């Protein structure tokens, strides 16, 4: 019902007839002000609707597709708000969105495991002989860490690809990509603990993250 509400709401927004609901009204204003593409909003809703059963991803491609249709779509909308229409920026947004989706899945693994749920790609788990029960038991065995290594490595690869476009991406697009600072910070921390996804240090906030964001913003990079 919630998904159907938002589908109809987005349709109504693009017909200039938004429902009298605070979020919908603000979204309507943003659509009018920045001429936002309806397709990206619908992709977010459709992808979330497909994943309402909250099952594990069958493979890394499924996780990347989910991230592309949700996280990357948000970045495409952000670029539109910034007035950026550039193919290189779109490519960077695609890779950063995928990296964000993968890192979010990793970060949430301890939380989901405590509720006996695991969403990490099943193909990578099977490759290393790891069961869902291993994550529920918070196993620190090498094969469990190998799963995390492979998944984190894919996120790192997407960040690397995104940054390969940096010289071609318009500077005004960089604010949309500052989340790379937080993504890289997490990937470095998980490497430092030898890919032990349950290490307590991974649950602690980095108090220097705002400073890192400021510095990256000042450097005009991502």
UniProtKB/TrEMBL annotation:
This protein's UniProt keywords: Membrane, Mitochondrion, Mitochondrion inner membrane, Transit peptide
InterPro entries according to UniProt: Isoprenoid_synthase_dom_sf (IPR008949), Squ/phyt_synthse (IPR002060)
GO cellular component terms attached to this protein's record: mitochondrial inner membrane
Pfam families for this protein: SQS_PSY
Subcellular location: Mitochondrion inner membrane
Biological processes annotated in GO: mitochondrial respiratory chain complex I assembly
SUPFAM superfamilies linked to this entry: Terpenoid synthases
Biological role: Involved in the assembly of mitochondrial NADH:ubiquinone oxidoreductase complex (complex I) at early stages. May play a role in the biogenesis of complex I subunit MT-ND1.
Protein family: Belongs to the NDUFAF6 family.
Protein name (record): NADH dehydrogenase (ubiquinone) complex I, assembly factor 6
Source organism of the structure: Leptonychotes weddellii (Weddell seal)
Taxon lineage: Eukaryota, Metazoa, Chordata, Craniata, Vertebrata
Gene: NDUFAF6
